[in-house]
Amino acid sequence: MPALKSLALAGSALILLSACTVGPAYQRPDVTASAAALPATYKALDGWKVATPGDLIDRGDWWTLLGDPQLDALVAKVNVSNQTIAAAEASYRQARALVREQRASLFPTIDLSGSATRSGGSGSTTSSSGGSSRGQRYQAGIGASWEPDLWGRIRQGINGAKASEQASAADLAGARLSMQGELAINYLGLRQADAEIDLVTRTVEGYQRSLQITQNRYAAAIAPKSDVLQATTQLAGAQADLESLRQTRATYENAIATLVGEPASGFRLAADPAWRAHVPEIPAGVPSTLLERRPDIAAAERRVAAANADIGVARAAFFPTIGLSANGATSGSALGDLFSASANTWSLGLTAAQTLFDAGARKARVEQARASYDASVADYRQTALAAFEDVENQLTAAQVLERRYALLKTSSDAADQTEQMLLNQYKAGQVAYTDVVTAQASALSARRALLTAAVARQTTAVALIQALGGGWKPQA
């Protein structure tokens, strides 16, 4: 009993000591390493404040801002069947399991064992009558061991695993956002190809009519053969452009198939004649708190926290490890003897170990952990600074493209009128066909530039959504 009391007192003291920790307290690092503070607003848009990472905010169905039900259906497939997202989700489950494994180290380990043996032999040494002797033996035992977390090594390991789990969750959100954005970009590219195919097809039909006009005029000796050759050249060039656009469309369609987890050979996405390049309006006062929703920033910050916990784990190696153990065993020649008091044995133990000399290995591990922490801080700062750059670029691009689209619309309307006027004048014999060719080429170029600018505004909106972490509304 005195031994039991002493061991109980020692265990109580160890439990109290286990509240100690030798790891550094974690503080989220500043985004900039210099003393200069981040600006309160973005250059490209007023009314934005500085943000901090927060990866737990729901990003919402941001793609619905583009107003395309077919895109909505494809994104739903990406969320379920995309293999990049599936891999990130598996990594997240692995990180969650690692947290549970680390947490289990806080509790005792209990083992149960049992055995049964039967032995026998023959000869004069075992029996006076020269017969045989056989015997059997049963054993059962139970043991428990526990290493109190005196210096916070286990708790720091748990904190690091939790931070890694949160980083993995952010990686999953980032993979999902990236795949959704990539699908939207490819879908818009496909729809742009469809619109250009339709535009160039109508242009080819117009060029065919122009060729017929020049052939009729040449046959009537009104126009030279060079007009026919020019019209033929222009028509063949437009038809060649049409074939290139069909190849581009097929490439986008195959990319979409891979993103939604389907074989490209069996995937078809029909053209949508009713499709129009709808550009979501960007609210003038979007707050920079949306930058908190960038999963890459959240993941980088959580990895800083995990690296900080690793420093505590490395420091704990300088302190002794102490363990408690308890074992009980019983044995007998029959199963009934296992439960008799005379067959039972027990033991209680207290162990301690301390490394006295390791030629600086522990110190080197602490320095490694500190260096890893510094590297993760630098990665976090670089990620955050790049995010601010990304948002600034996309905001500027959205403003510039809006103005550029208006100018291209004016240019395209004027080119259409010029083309029709010169074609009418050519029919009346007032201008050379060279003027018509030039006007038609300019009109087609202006129409395609206008379409490209419209889709560019859409893709810039998608890029801005991704730069902000997804969605426009902070309360989403």
Can you characterise this structure?
With 476 residues, the protein is an alpha+beta fold. It has one domain (31-106, 152-319, 361-467): Up-down Bundle (Outer membrane efflux proteins (OEP)). The chain is built from eight helices and four strands. Strands 1-2-3-4 form a four-stranded antiparallel sheet, with helices on one face. The longest helix has 67 residues, at 153-219. The radius of gyration is 38 Å and the shape is elongated. The chain starts with a helix and ends in a 9-residue tail after the last helix. Mean pLDDT is 84; it is low at 47-52 and 472-476. This is NodT family efflux transporter outer membrane factor (OMF) lipoprotein. Residues 113-135 have a biased composition (Low complexity). Residues 1-27 form the signal peptide. It is found in: Cell membrane. Residues 111-138 are annotated as: Disordered.
Topology:
Blueprint lengths: L1 H16 L51 H13 L1 H22 L4 E14 L9 E15 L6 H67 L5 H35 L35 H22 L4 E12 L11 E10 L7 H67 L5 H35 L9
Helix pairs in contact: 2-4, 3-4, 4-5, 4-6, 4-8, 5-8, 6-7, 7-8
InterPro entries: MdtP/NodT-like, OMP_efflux
Membrane topology: Lipid-anchor
Protein name: NodT family efflux transporter outer membrane factor (OMF) lipoprotein
- Give the count of helical stretches: 8
Which residue ranges are poorly predicted, with pLDDT under 50 across at least 5 consecutive positions?
47-52, 472-476
CATH topology: Outer membrane efflux proteins (OEP)
Main sheet overview? 4 strands, antiparallel
N-end to C-end Cα span: 63 Å
Q: Helix proportion of residues, in percent?
A: 55-70%
Q: What structural class should be given to the helix and strand makeup?
A: alpha+beta
What portion of the residues fall into strands of 2 or more residues?
Answer: 5-15%
What is the number of independent domains?
Answer: 1
Quickly give the CATH architecture: Up-down Bundle
Which value, in Å, is the CA radius of gyration? 38 Å
